[in-house]
Amino acid sequence: xxxxxxxxxxxxxxxxxxxxxxxxxxxxxxxxxxxxxxxxxxxxxxxxxxxxxxxxxxxxxxxxxxxxxxxxxxxxxxxxxxxxxxxxxxxxxxxxxxxxxxxxxxxxxxxxx
Length: 113
Known about the structure:
Number of helices: 5
Distance between the termini: 22 Å
Order of helices and strands: HHHHH
Number of strands: 0
Helix content: over 70%
Oligomer: single chain
Structural class: mainly alpha
Shape: flat
Radius of gyration: 16 Å
């Protein structure tokens, strides 16, 4: 896996953290952590978008963030487990993986020319 895709995955991880923070932050430190997570998340996504197709980066970022947030809600915050919700997350992740597989990095395009 290319380091730019790794940045997208890390950015999605921090997206999950800031989304949870927006819902649960209640004091200075939790709000500070939420803001830091937002900054890290968007910084990594923007940096990765300089080398990868922006539309694909954003789709992967949002898809992984959504899946991670839903799974975190189920695992850590008592959200009811519903098989339909999990199946839709699997479909979402399949789409994200498919986008990544069919996307050609700019560096690879230059090598092929």
